[in-house]
Amino acid sequence: MSVSAPLLTIDNLCFDFDGQTEKTVNALELSVKKGEIVCILGASGCGKTTVLNLIAGLLKPKSGSINMHAEAGKKNSIGYIFQSDPLFPWRTVEGNLMLAFDLNKSLDRNRAKETMQQYLSMFHLNSQILTKYPTQLSGGMRQRVSIIQSLMFDPELLLLDEPFSALDYYTKLSLEEEFCQLVKEKNKAAILVTHDIEEAVSMGTRAFIMSGGKLAREFHIKQETQGLDNTRGTEEFAKHYREIWSELKTIISG
Amino acid sequence: METSATTKLVFAQRLLYPLPMVVFVLVWHFFTQGNKERQFIFSSPEKVWEALERTIISGELLTNCQVTVTEAVAGFLLGTTIGAIIGLALWYSKLVAQISKPYITALATVPIFALAPVVISWFGIDIYSKIALAFLSTVSVAIVQSYQGAMSVEKRFLRLMQVAGATRWQTFRLVVVPSSIIWVLNAMKLNIGLALMGAFIGEFISSEHGLGYMIVKASGLYDQATVFAGVIALIVIALALTFVIEQIENRLMRWKTV
Fold first, then answer.
1. Which domain holds residue A223?
2. A25-32 and A189-193 as β-strands: parallel, antiparallel, unpaired?
3. Is the pLDDT of residue A37 over 50?
4. Looking at this predicted complex, what is its ipTM?
5. Contacts of B181 in chain A (CB under 8 A)
6. Is pLDDT at B250 greater than 60 in this prediction?
7. Domain contains A116
8. Counting beta carbons within 10 angstroms of the beta carbon of residue B46, is it exposed (0 to 12), middle (13 to 18) or buried (19 or more)?
């Protein structure tokens, strides 16, 4: 696969929940390349999470296609990071992070532990945390562990459903930055569903506004601003923010 | 400061624990003291103490306790294990779960006292019929509780396993079973009393050993003191078995208390 070839392509995707007359997802088109963070914004209930669930295979499309052009032989090419972390409370942090190994015994245990240590340091977590249970962690720590748990499956595409919305502002900023760095360093791709325009502008390479079951409007965000919180005050940041907000306002107000 | 207050509270609680029992014994003592008729009907704390001493020294109480505990524990282990396996396994098939529902409800609602004569005629009057009755008393509770547990697994855990490409067996083993443990433990707590009751009913109807037999025999002789001694033994057994279950719970649910 060439560098510029898309990792994910979605063509004419349609979906509706049984008994609904209006389509939740209606002829949606999208392609995502490696290294990209694509943000989806939109009013509540517009179908943003449904799109992620369709890509993750949690829902079956009524028509259209979703194609992942993942590396050959890869079992898990998609990782999903939810708003409420799915850490098992009965397992220690290490037990939670080694879930990928438990599900695929053909992986090398020592290698998996090395990878886990790398991610822990990337997300500024001490290895003492490994013996703790999720209930002993703060919200930010839990979300970091949850991201690492997803990464342990070595996915090429990460789906994020408002993962930082419940965190305090400082934790949110540092996690956004760490995540952008990760996508760049590990050459992954991500689709982020968010209500936060600031988050979309600071993290995204592209942002979409979803409306009427479609990605109605696309915004190209300049790469240099991605994930750097010191760019939040720049004129360029403000320009993207204003553009997205003005469009969102028009869509929401009807 | 706060620690000292907590310690004082715990100390006060420990002192207060036996208070209701002490009050009950005192009321009983003064109510029956010096009144032969009342002592015949209600016995008295002194007579019960004498009966306990006598049956312990003669070995009668311990032998009968041993029989009842064996029957109840065997029935409890069989009923809870088989019930938990069935209840958890029903998670695999919604169709089977739906079909089984009325049968499980029927089994749960049939009074064990009604089944006892039939079970005794099938298994005889020795230990096996009592184990069967303890089993029947506990199995439905274990099925219902475990199934509830399996169906109450948080959606976010199941979604994670689905995205991770886990097989149904992996999801069952790594998510459904561990997250249902609390329900199985609750079933165990309920089942301790039910297993004792099942074994006791069997002994009460037809038996040559056990606390049920001892109580029926004493009751036939108007020996109320020995009846109360048997009841006290049953209470002590139930408390001891509940304590064991609580220790298992503390061990298995360590993550809840860290």
1. 1-70+192-254
2. unpaired
3. yes
4. 0.86
5. 90
6. yes
7. no
8. middle
